[in-house]
Task: structure prediction
Amino acid sequence: MLAAGCAEVKSSQPVPPVAQARPHSYTVHGITVEDPYHWLKDQSYPKVDDPDVLAYLEAENAYFDAVMAPHRELADTLFAEIKARQKPDDANVPVKEGDYFYQWRFEAEGQYRVWSRWPATERGADEGPSAQAQVILDEPALAKDVDYFRLGALSVSNNGRLMAYSTDTTGAERFTLRVKGLDTGELLGEVIENTSGNPVWPADDGSFFYTVVDDNWRPYQVRRHVLGTPVADDTVVYEESDPGFFVAVSSTSSKRYVVISSGDHVTAEVYVVAADAPASAPLLVAARRQEHDYSLDHQGDRFVIRTNDTHKNNRLVTAPDGDPSEGAWETLVAGSDERYILGFQPFADFLAVEERIDGLDQIRLIDRAGQTTYIEFPEAAYRVGIGANEEFESRTLRLGYESMVTPDSVFDYDLDTAGLRTRKVQEIPSGYDAAGYVTERVMAPARDGVRVPVSIVYRKGTPMDGSAPLYLYGYGAYGSGMSPSFSTTRLSLLDRGFIYAIAHIRGGDELGYHWYEAGKLDRRTNTFNDFVDVARHLIAEGFTGQGRIAIAGGSAGGELMGAVVNQAPELWGAVAAHVPFVDVLNTMLDTSLPLTPIEWPEWGNPIEDKAVFEYIRSYSPYDQLGPGHYPPMLVTAGLNDPRVTYWEPAKYVAKLRTLKQDDNPLLMKTNMGAGHGGKSGRFDSLYEVAEEYAFMLWSIAGDE
Result:
């Protein structure tokens, strides 16, 4: 039975719940906005206990189950395929840190990892764990009695005797930090609530630095806890007063400094604390100024800093060990229009730099004499990044590598031999032959003349006459580029005749920082236009046909889904909008939400600027819904999601139900015990992918 706030209609077919429209309006800049579904935001949030709200979400879940019931067999078949591609007892390549090798492993059928270590003198990484390998953290045991589990941090002290780790059992991303004695296996008395990020051990291991979040989920303080003392007595090392800045703490690669970073999406401020003097005051590196973004690491005798102070694609500078201040910076790698510097890691004898040139990932090595070497890779298009490298004195660099047809791989690059050694290639137990698939990169013309890269993969023999269905993915925000990477799950679509494409639209940084800037603030609609124009180009080139395109995106990519559905609903055969940021205007006006102030550099501040208010309102998917025909849609939410709050997708679906003039399915699924990332277990999360694929196959193919 539906509670007040929803209507129920008797029918032989499942009938969706209809949320009440309750009068609510507000006026900003002299403009009045009606929002009849405002009530779906529980006023006691982050606690959600309003019976009408819960009843509506549960009713939508029941409707989802009822509509999906005839297609459950297809979802189960897809899940079985996807699961069969996962190595049941998968493990990472062991990582040496100090006197030990560390490794995580899934037990067969395990949803969570077991972490272990063994002495580096006893057995090498290639030989695997010794018979006496020590289990240091058992995630399955910790997750046994909870519906949701996520490990937030695992940090071992320098002497290897203590481990700080944090867990989240709700999906709200408020982690509880504990300390374990690795000699005894016993938990110490320290229990610290509401933490985020990795704790950092200074040189003496008698204390650790950690970050805490406030009531609005903003990481705002770095504190230092001395072992054996009351948590209430912990020293506040740094507190950020700007509500638009988030704080993090880390360690330099040399382990000589603790780094405190504060910033939003475009501006940073960094402090350092000497690891051998943990009680000393933090030393400022460069005072914040608008849109100056920088990060810092340490190379034993000097600091290395990535900064956008002279070029938006960043440069690398160095500074003396005793003086990281801006006045002491000297250029190591100059900024360049062609070269986009993404990140770096210093080692004792060399510096590894992540770059992107013409949209292609590169790894650059710079020795102490300033000489540069680029690592060569076997394919023309791929994704590569610096992997887990914990040994500062190493002459080997670990890398992660994959492409649209090459499974996730781990390489070690030997600087002395200039050779790549394959340490692991993702195993697909059910079988996979890369030769059976084709990958392409095309450039699609956008309506303003810009050419947008598109990465494509399909099974050999797939028709190119416009008849094939196509899955198009996009994100386009925060400068987060979508790499041409591998996926075991999408093989289920490729093997059923789908073409898979990633649209590298503006708002990401695939082609450099300018690509990001061209899709944010008052140019945000470029992102949506690019996605639509990519789809039209793929239709024109015979990859697919109108109405044969399944599209998907999550979070800001979910906003993309809502915007392109409003702009060109006729193009799409199915839409999956995961935890979608669709109520952009209301969220950017709501300063009680943790992410609102930090998001203003990305979207603009509609409170202070009427033009920003009107621009956001002009594209905000929730605000732009109107009467018409809409494609089949699957929308997801997480009740405990602190990033995109549950009421955004709930309000969107409630409003759309009253406006759509077609019989296409509109489904919403809310994870009542999870957050932004959906369910936490590796197989539970894969089943949600299978559900999405089943929805798309059913919607586009019309059969199973």
Q: What stands out?
A: The first helix runs from residue 51 to 68. The domain at 437-701 is CATH 3.40.50.1820 (Rossmann fold).
